[in-house]
Amino acid sequence: METIHHQKTKEAFLGRHEWWEQETISFRCPKCWLRHFQCYCNYMTERKYHYDTLFGQNKTFKLEVYMYYHHLEIGRSANTAHIFDVLGESVVIPIVYGDENAEARLMETIVSEYKQGITNTCILYPNNESLLLSDWINNTVIQSFPTQETSEPSSNNLILPPIRIILLDGTYPCASRMAKALLNMREAYLLPEEVLPFVKLDLSENGLKSAVAGIMYQPAKFKICSYQAIVLAIQQIYETFHLPCSILVTDLLQDLDNWLAYIVKAKIKLTKTKPVTGIEDVVDQTPANFIQEIVKNLTVHPNNLKPNSSKQIKSTDDNQAVPAIRRRRRKRKKTIPTVVLVSTRKFRVFSIVYI
Ligand SMILES: [Zn+2]
Predict the structure, then answer these.
(1) How far is the C-alpha of 290 from the C-alpha of 231, rounded, in Å?
(2) Which residues surround ligand 1, an ion (CB under 5 A)?
(3) Using 50, 70 and 90 to split pLDDT, how confident is the model at 159?
(4) Rounded mean pLDDT, 102-125
(5) Is residue 339 within a helix (H) or strand (E), and if so which, with residue range?
(6) Residue 192 CB partners (closer than 8 Å, separation 6+)
(7) pTM of the full predicted structure?
(8) How far is the CA of 298 from the centre of ligand 1 (A)?
(9) Integer Cα distance of 93 and 67 in angstroms
(10) What DSSP line would sit under 230-253, residue for residue?
(11) Domain map of the chain by residue range?
(12) Which one, of 222, 106, 122, lies nearest residue 162 by Cα?
């Protein structure tokens, strides 16, 4: 196995893993990541069966989504990727940045396919070298797949090339580090650039409005949340293969809205209705209608809302839900004693004094 991570990354991954195990013992649901009294799993379990059916409808096509989480995303209640992960369980394989065993298994699978002449894995990440997703499928995947008739519609019962897509889930600086790590892995496993390329969605010049507008700020017109990105990627893949997907895509996007409405109503995430200056000319920051409706019905102005419920005090969320008292206590614990060096002429030595 090739070691590609810095020791600190491996330790950070293990630390987060350990923290999450403790959190899920009594505070949080391991599936939806919310506190038990807020658990969203009943709804999602029902919807998961619906998506199992939709994803399973095309027997001639196999899709695999590697949800590549940055370890800091694990347990973030407002993370959207893990909602797709639960709903699309039949096509998703989650792995975490820094988990070298899981990363090595993925790379070894790609290497083994490459040795058979198959190239079907891409990284969904827009950068300077990214290819358009549909171009990559047409020019590389279909060409590399053993059965050349696969560009025909599946009505002929031809087997279509399987597609594996790696989605980077993290803040933009974290995703950039993860992309770099994948580049290092590609080199370490001696894979040519075209075997594990970066791809981007085929969006118009105007970019796309984020589905989470009104809850989280969209930093730029091409930057959308992970859930939205993977649904659009699936739409583009299905359309490239002429597979029907309108119900799948519409339902998935509706379930994203349902989830967002839930976390706003439950005050897990507060709304951000004030536009940020400097980006309003390129990004439409108007909250979606359903968010505006929720805000209208709130008795308190959203900017004055505080995550309430005393039960929340029992957990250590990374978001704004950690009460001030708990934060102060944690801070004091971490305080390093001030060290003063005192010179004593008599002994010509320095004493260390803690104050
Ligand atoms: Zn749950």
Answers:
(1) 20
(2) 29, 31-32, 39, 41
(3) confident
(4) 94
(5) strand 339-344
(6) none
(7) 0.77
(8) 25
(9) 6
(10) HHHHHHHHHHHTT---HHHHHHHH
(11) 7-265
(12) 122
